[in-house]
Write a structure and sequence with these properties.
By secondary structure, this protein is an alpha/beta fold. It has helices at 18-27, 43-52, 64-81, 110-122, 129-137, 145-161, and strands at residues 7-9, 34-38, 56-59, 84-87, 90-93, 98-101, 104-107, 166-171, 175-180. A 4-stranded antiparallel β-sheet has the order 4-5-6-7, covered by helices on one side. Helix 2 (43-52) links the parallel strand 2 and strand 3.
């Protein structure tokens, strides 16, 4: 599964319904907010959706302003609940932009912060250079894969400078992932 800020599910989807998807997402201990957006408006449907793991259940038809308010509320709640991302003995403070290991810390630039956050959220799963480029620089950017390589180099030096036990590993044609020593 990728890294998402919010999942919007419909109950009536092909192959697997929204309830099943929500249950599978929650079974992986993923805390990403889930919004059910569906025409199934009965009380039992809403209860089933919320019990399956949805954080909010919005029925069709809906006003766009209400949808945007729901999305903003769920994203706001997610930001408040999660103030750091941790892997191995190292954490990224999302409020200050500091990479912390024990009593040592180092401030990250905006791009370094975004890349490190995605790597920490992905953990041992590979993130391709293309994915990192799209998420950090944007789809319409002129940035190239070399930009990712340069910033990963900066992050490796900063991880070493604070004595972190995590390493950013590269797998040719697959991308980057984290590994922790001693785990």
């Amino acid at each position: 599964m990728g890294i998402y800020d919010l999942l919007i599910l419909d109950v009536m989807m092909p192959k697997m319904n929204g309830y099943e998807v929500a249950r599978k997402v929650r079974a992986t201990k993923c805390g990403t907010p889930i919004l059910m957006l569906t025409a199934k408006s009965g009380l039992e449907d809403r209860i089933t959706g919320l019990n399956a793991g949805a954080d909010y259940y919005l029925t069709k038809p809906f006003d766009t302003r209400e949808l945007l308010a729901c999305i903003n509320a769920l994203l706001r709640r997610q930001g408040n609940q999660m103030d750091e991302v941790t892997y191995g003995d190292t954490s990224l403070d999302l409020a200050s932009g500091m990479l912390v290991c024990g009593t040592n810390s180092v401030r990250l630039s905006a791009k370094e912060f975004d890349i490190m956050r995605f790597l920490l959220q992905a953990g041992s799963r590979n993130l391709s250079k293309e994915t990192i480029l799209a998420r950090v620089w944007g789809y319409d950017s002129d940035a190239v894969e070399n930009h990712v390589e340069v910033y990963v180099g900066f992050l490796r030096k900063k991880l070493a400078s604070i004595g972190s036990n995590i390493r950013i590993e590269a797998i040719r044609r697959m991308g980057y992932h984290l590994e922790a020593d001693g785990s």
